[in-house]
Prior knowledge:
Radius of gyration: 24 Å
Largest sheet: none
Number of strands: 0
Shape: elongated
Amino acid sequence: MEILAKFKEGFWGFDWIILLVAVINILLLLETKRMNGEISGNLKELEKQENLLAANKAYSQFTKRYTIFLTIISIFPLLGMLGTVWSLLSLDITVIDDNLKSNFFAALTSTAWGIICAVGFKLANSLISTSVENTIQKLETLINKFEDTEISSESQKSRVEI
């Protein structure tokens, strides 16, 4: 129970920033998952319509959100270390008292939250990464097909004009 009290105490130091970033990443995860389902369901329709612009737009938005999600995962340990350093810098080492102990534990809770968030989101990513990367690959293939079709039709037009 004492550990929970230390986490609660550390929350108002630097931990709230890490948890705020975690909430943002949860929203990005949910949005990425939603977009993945939506794009996967619409791929055949995009192919039928041969809509290069829509395919490019979907690809750009989808990959941007997923890349931000992955980037945030990698910064959680750094945020934890930053919280540790931030708390340790505020220590007054001339006096060893309860304040020193409190700041030391606040430093450790930031590190713990950073690691917990990084591990949690890495696990969440492992659940969606195959599907997301598959959708990205299908979008890239579709865009390449549209571009190849566009190039070949333009070259046929130029041959007719000559």
